[in-house]
Amino acid sequence: MARYFYKGRTARGEAVENTVEANSEDALASQLFNSGITPVEITLAVVAPKKVSFKRKLGLGKPKIEELILFSKQMSTLFKAGIPITRAMNSLAQTTHNEYLKEILEHSIKQLEAGQTLSVGLGKYPEVFPAVFLSVMKVGESTGRLDNAFEQLSFYLERDKLIKDKIKEATRYPTFVLIFLAAAFIALNIFVIPKFAGVFAKMHLELPIYTKMLLATSDLFVNYWPWMLAVAAVLVFSLRQYISTDTGRFAFDKAKFKIPYIGEIIRKAVLARFCRAFALTQQAGVPLVQALNLVSNAVGNVFVADRVSTMRGGVERGDNLTNTATATGMFTPLVMQMIAVGEETGQVDEMLVKVAEFYEEEVNYEIKFLSSQIEPALILSIAIMVLIMALGIFMPMWDLIGQVK
User: Fold this and answer.
1) Which of 70, 259, 314, 342 is the right S-S partner for 324, CB 3.0 to 4.6 Å?
2) Domain 63-158 architecture
3) Using an 8 Å Cβ cutoff, are 269 and 167 in contact?
4) Tens digits of per-residue pLDDT, 214-228?
């Protein structure tokens, strides 16, 4: 919808002018005639661009998923209590601590007062509210059950957050240890090993292979660290640029599933999100083809989204959901059986919920198994690094002590 400025006259001949939103000039003219105003002039309104703060440009201050969960729960409770929608939105706008969310709610209230639906107002902020969120809201508005819609959305967001937290929990410890190891390795090569290099040079001994490797690596860091830093920065920048393209993003999301141990966890987590989102749209009454289109944008993985789009194409051609899901090769035989049963009984949403719960349990198990396997591997890596350092530094000293004796 666009904003239009109009001038007109009432039935009494009084001049009026205002700026309103409408689908087109003809639609606005019809609306004015019906309200007893004869339009004289209708033009597109010139809207001054709103100043966007530097913080907003960086993507900061955006409502967190916890705030969206709380917002959904509060809206569901207020609607069940029979509170009018405008009053409910005003209450939340006054109590929220997030300035961005407060701005969204205030703008949505103006949209409601202008005759628009809540989904239209929130739809102005696609960076905050995903397509699935807005679609379920539209179904709730059309059926008059926004309370149920927000209740379903809060549950979906909670489960989605739980999966993300589990993945972060599994990767946090190894990431921290690897960063610490890298920092320790760089510090030893720049500050510690050069001190020993001068001592070894005065010994005039034939140095062991471990010592030569350490000295060569240290010389590389000490003499060429600006070049190494520049090359690392160029590689990181190039990788980010490549991932920002459609081809790069597709390749990157596909490569995630091939990472040892972690790839299988990511795959099951993405599929759990797919099943949750798909079940949510089916419970809300979204048509199957439209639901697949919405879910493909909600899974957060371009590779899986492409497979879901393939499913949508098969359904559009008249094929059933089971056959199209089998053709993607993403689902296990057990999951395919559950989808087939759901399609046969007309309870696809319930079967998808069970599939999502199955994948979520698998993710929990895989994360626990990964945690038990990572710690010994990291300890072994640290031990190997310390052993190489010790052999490289102390073996020449042992040789010198042997010559002295």
Assistant:
1) 314
2) Up-down Bundle (1.20)
3) yes
4) 888 888 888 888 898
